[in-house]
Write a structure and sequence with these properties.
The complex is a heterodimer. Chain A has 9 helices and 21 strands. Chain A is α+β, with helices and mostly antiparallel strands. Among the domains of chain A are: about 25-65 and about 160-255, Gyrase A, domain 2 (2-Layer Sandwich); about 305-385, Aminomethyltransferase beta-barrel domains (Elongation Factor Tu (Ef-tu), domain 3), CATH 2.40.30.110. In chain A, the strands form 4 sheets. A 7-stranded mixed sheet of chain A has the order 11-12-13-14-10-4-15. Chain A has a 6-stranded antiparallel barrel with strand order 16-19-18-17-20-21. In chain A, helix 2 (about 55-60) packs across helix 7 (about 245-255). The N and C termini of chain A lie far apart (about 45 Å). Chain B is of the alpha+beta class. Helices cover about 20% and strands about 35% of the residues of chain B. A 6-stranded antiparallel sheet of chain B has the order 1-2-3-9-8-5. Chain B has a 3-stranded antiparallel sheet with strand order 4-6-7, with no helix packed on it. Classes of the chains: A alpha+beta, B alpha+beta. The interface of A and B includes residues 57 and 320 of A.
Chain lengths: ~400, ~120
C-alpha cells in the first residue's frame, strides 16, 4: 500500500536536510513521529497513551493542547512611519491598531493574489508579525524589497513559538506565575481574544497573545529559544495539557473553518474569493493604497467568480484536496482541504465553488476515485468558535 | 496456514486457493487513525498490483495493492461500522478481503514473517 492518492497536509516522509527546531529532542522524547514540514522536522502526532490524531484533536477540544509552531516566521518592524509603511503592503488599517491589539491580515501581490496570511500585533508602537513557515523566506524578501529603508525588519529567528489551545488552556496557564511586564498590560486571564502583551515567567520574557488556530480559547506564546524547553516542560506538566502534533492542528483548523496557506490560499486566490473580506478595513476599501488594491477593490464591488465554502459530506469517505465538485453534469469547483472531522464524526471539506452555488444548503457532489459523494454547502465554522471575548 | 507479506505492507493468509488480505500492523501504525475503508465488491476480478482497496486515515488516503491476482470472494463487512478494527487488530479481525487465487506462483516472490520483520526494521 502507499499514500499515493493524496497527502493533502503537505507532510513528506522523505526529508531533505530539514532544519531542527529547539524542541526537536523534546518531541522525540515524548514519542512524537517527526515529519518534514516547511523545511523543519515537526511532530505530526505522538505515540502511546493519548497519542494519535483523533485523540489529540479531541483532547484539545475538551482540555488543552500544546502545539510547537516554531517553524513560523516571527518578524518585528520599527521605525518612523512604520504603520503607514506596512499599510502599503497589507490591506488592514494598521495605523488604527492600538498597542496590545492584534489582527489578521494578508500579504498581497500586485494582482491581488495572496502571498501569505498573517497575524500582526502592535507592541508599543513596533509591530510584531507571525507569518507561515513555508512562506517566511519569500515574505521576508518581499517585505525587504518593498518597505522603505528607514523601516527596520528584525527576524526573531532565535525565538520559538508555542500555542496553548483549548477550553482549559487559560485555567492551566494561569497556574504558572506569568506576570505582565508593565502595569498597562492586562493580567493573563484578563487578556481577551486578539489582545497581546509582554509578560515575564521566572524572569523569562514571553510575548503572549490570546489567539490561535483551533477555534478554541487559547494563547500563542513567543519565547526565546533558550527558554522554550523549560516553558514546554512547565506547560506539559499541567494535568490539562498534552502535546499535540501537526496532524490534529490541521483537523482542528479545518473544523474551525480557518484557511491554510498553500491549500485555501495562494497567489492564484484573492481575499474576496477566499471569504477574507473582513481583513480589508473600511478605510482601506475607500482609499486603497495597498499592493493589489485595484484588483481587490474591483472584486469587492463586483464579487468574485468563485468563493470558499464549507462542505459537509454524507457517508465516511473523505474528500481530499484536488477532488472536483459537481452539480449534475456541471463541474463547479475544487476541494482545497478535506478530511474526517473527529468532533462531528463525518467528513468535512473546504472548496472553491462557483459563487452562484456558494449558498448554505446547496446540494452537490464531490468526485473521489470515480465515485460521487453527496455533500452540501454549510456555513463555517463547522464547530463553533469558543474565543474569550 | 502460511502468511506472506509484500513490500507495500499487505499481508495474505493462504488456505488452499483462497487468500485473506489485510494491511500490516506496521502499516496501520504509520497511517494513524483509520476512519474509512473502501473495499472491493464480491466477484471483482483483480490483477496482482492493482489498487483494490483504499484505507482512509485522518491524514490521507492510501491504496492497498492486491498481492495476487484472482476474484474477490468476500469483503470484511465489519469495517463499515468499525474501520478502527484496522488500527486495533490489523492482522486478524481487521482483514480487508478474501480472494480466489488464480495463480499461486505469484506468492513466490513474497516475504515470510521473518523477512518482512527484517524489511521493516531496515526502513
Amino acid at each position: 500500500m502507499s499514500e499515493s492518492l493524496s497527502n493533502d497536509n503537505g507532510f513528506s516522509e522523505e526529508p531533505q536536510e530539514p532544519a531542527l527546531l529547539p524542541l526537536d529532542a523534546w518531541h522525540r522524547a515524548r514519542g512524537a513521529r517527526m515529519v518534514e514540514f516547511a523545511g523543519y522536522m515537526m511532530p505530526v502526532q505522538y505515540t502511546g497513551e493519548g497519542g494519535g490524531i483523533i485523540a489529540e484533536h479531541l483532547w484539545t477540544r475538551e482540555q488543552a493542547g500544546l502545539f510547537d509552531v516554531s517553524h513560523m516566521g516571527q518578524l518585528e518592524f520599527s521605525g518612523e512611519g512604520v504603520a503607514a509603511a506596512l499599510e502599503t503592503l497589507l490591506p488592514g488599517e494598521i495605523s488604527a491598531l492600538k498597542p496590545g491589539r492584534q489582527r489578521y491580515s494578508l500579504l498581497l501581490d500586485d494582482n491581488g493574489g495572496i502571498l501569505d496570511d498573517l497575524m500582526i500585533a502592535n507592541r508599543d508602537g513596533d509591530y510584531y508579525m507571525v507569518v507561515n513557515g513555508a512562506t517566511k523566506w519569500d515574505d521576508i524578501g518581499h517585505l525587504r524589497e518593498h518597505l522603505p529603508d528607514e523601516i527596520t525588519m528584525n527576524h526573531l529567528d532565535e525565538h520559538a513559538l508555542l500555542a496553548l489551545q483549548g477550553p482549559k488552556a487559560a485555567e492551566a496557564f494561569a497556574r504558572l506565575d506569568v506576570r505582565p511586564e508593565s502595569s498597562d498590560t492586562p493580567a493573563l486571564l484578563d487578556l481577551k481574544f486578539m489582545q497581546a502583551g509582554a509578560y515575564l515567567w521566572n524572569d523569562k520574557p514571553l510575548g503572549i497573545s490570546r489567539s490561535g488556530y483551533t477555534g478554541e480559547d487559547g494563547f500563542e506564546i513567543s519565547v526565546r529559544s533558550e527558554d522554550v524547553v523549560a516553558l514546554a516542560d512547565a506547560l506539559a506538566a499541567l494535568p490539562e495539557v498534552r502535546p499535540i502534533g501537526l496532524g490534529a492542528r490541521d483537523s482542528l483548523r479545518l473544523e474551525a473553518g480557518l484557511p491554510l496557506y498553500g491549500h485555501e490560499l495562494s497567489p492564484e486566490t484573492d481575499p474576496v474569493a477566499a471569504d477574507l473580506g473582513f481583513a480589508i478595513s473600511k478605510r482601506r476599501r475607500a482609499e486603497g493604497g495597498f499592493m493589489g488594491a485595484d484588483k481587490v477593490l474591483a472584486l469587492l464591488a463586483e464579487g468574485a467568480p468563485r468563493k470558499r465554502v464549507g462542505l459537509a459530506l454524507e457517508g465516511r469517505m473523505a474528500a481530499r484536496e484536488g477532488a472536483t465538485v459537481h452539480l449534475g453534469a456541471r463541474m463547479i469547483g475544487t476541494v482545497t482541504s478535506g478530511g474526517f472531522s473527529p468532533s462531528l464524526q463525518h467528513p468535512i471539506a473546504m472548496a472553491y465553488v462557483d459563487a452562484d452555488l456558494a449558498t448554505d444548503g446547496t446540494a452537490l457532489e464531490i468526485e473521489m476515485r470515480g465515485k460521487r459523494l453527496p455533500a452540501r454547502v454549510v456555513s463555517m465554522p463547522f464547530v463553533p468558535h469558543r474565543y474569550y471575548r | 496456514m502460511p502468511r506472506y507479506f509484500t513490500e507495500d505492507h499487505e499481508w495474505i493468509d493462504v488456505e488452499g486457493d483462497v487468500g485473506t488480505v489485510g494491511i500490516t500492523d506496521y502499516a496501520q501504525s504509520q497511517l494513524g487513525d483509520i476512519t474509512y475503508v473502501e473495499l472491493p465488491s464480491e466477484g471483482t476480478d483483480v490483477t496482482k498490483g492493482d489498487s483494490v482497496s483504499v484505507v482512509d486515515s485522518v491524514k490521507a488516503a492510501s491504496d492497498v495493492y492486491t498481492p495476487v491476482s484472482g476474484s474477490v470472494t468476500a469483503a470484511n463487512a465489519a469495517l463499515a461500522d468499525e474501520p478502527e478494527l484496522v488500527n486495533t487488530d490489523a492482522e486478524e479481525t481487521g482483514w480487508l478481503y478474501r480472494i480466489a487465487i488464480s495463480d499461486s506462483s505469484e506468492l513466490e516472490p513474497l516475504m515470510d514473517r521473518k523477512a518482512y520483520d527484517a524489511y521493516v526494521a531496515g526502513l
